[in-house]
Design brief:
The complex is a heterodimer of chains A (115) and B (115). Chain A has no helices and 13 strands. By secondary structure, chain A is an all-beta fold. In chain A, strands 2, 4, 5, 6, 9, 12 and 13 form a 7-stranded mixed sheet that branches. In chain A, strands 1-3-8-7 form a 4-stranded antiparallel sheet, with no helix packed on it. Chain B has 115 residues and is mainly β. Chain B has strands at 3-5, 10-14, 19-21, 24-26, 32-39, 46-52, 60-61, 64-69, 74-79, 88-96, 103-105, 109-114. In chain B, a hairpin with a 2-residue loop joins β7 (60-61) and β8. Classes of the chains: A mainly beta (115), B mainly beta (115).
Chain lengths: 115, 115
């Protein structure tokens, strides 16, 4: 079984709809992240969480919100989807040791299309 | 600004040959990790190799090795004995320690391995 799972894998929605992307991990990591990938670009950080009570904005958080329901679950919401949020979304996890983040491991990605 | 530059948008190599992918980065920080991630057509982001900036010895993982030149801020990836399964996008990334733990990605190099 995969260590980091994302649901759904693909989603098509309409402008103005609320969408939730879910991420679950069995690695026991404290730290979780949401990234966005656009064609021709690398990944950019949307939000990150160091534990259940610690959530932080990344570089492109506008239009997104997150919820850390448990150590193993981190959800990303688009409150009112717009076409330029069409992208590939990745969840990642890492183990923080002594305050230092270790390698980040990625889920399989969710391809979101907003019409 | 902290940036990663991958100057080769596309490369190709024949099976069993060796190929080197280039990466340069810009940061004023001294404590960071460097990574190469592979993204095959399945779109999964897979860690290839990691280098701690404080280590002088170049990291190696089987057929994959890096040439880390800290003063030049260069971090190239060498793939030996290329295999068809190495066909993928390759992303260079770095992470500043004791900071936001954000991975900063380059724009990627598309590698095609030919039979």
């Amino acid at each position: 079984d995969a260590d980091v799972t994302q649901t759904p894998r693909n989603r098509i929605t309409k402008t103005g709809k609320r969408i939730m992307l879910e991420c679950s991990q069995t690695k026991g990591h404290d730290r979780m992240y949401w990234y966005r990938q656009d064609p021709g670009l690398g990944l950019r950080l949307i939000y990150y969480s160091f534990d259940v009570k610690d959530i932080n904005k990344g570089e492109i958080s506008d239009g997104y919100s997150v919820s850390r329901q448990a150590q193993a679950k981190f959800s990303l919401s688009l409150e009112s989807a717009i076409p330029n949020q069409t992208a590939l979304y990745f969840c990642a996890t890492s183990e923080g040791q002594g305050g230092v983040t270790d390698t980040q491991y990625f889920g399989p990605g969710t391809r979101l299309t907003v019409l | 600004a902290q940036t990663v530059t991958q100057s080769q948008p596309e490369m190709s190599v024949q099976e069993a040959e060796t190929v080197t992918l280039s990466c340069t980065y810009d940061t004023s920080e001294s404590n960071y990790y460097l990574f190469w991630y592979k993204q095959p057509p399945s779109r999964q982001m897979i860690l290839v190799i990691r280098q701690e900036a404080y280590k002088q010895q170049n990291a190696t993982e089987n057929r994959f090795s890096v040439n880390f030149q800290k003063a030049a801020k260069s971090f190239s990836l060498k793939i030996s004995d290329s295999q068809l399964g190495d066909t993928a996008m390759y992303f260079c990334a770095f992470m500043i320690l004791f900071n936001t733990d954000k991975l900063i990605f380059g724009t990627g190099t598309r590698l095609q391995v030919f039979p």
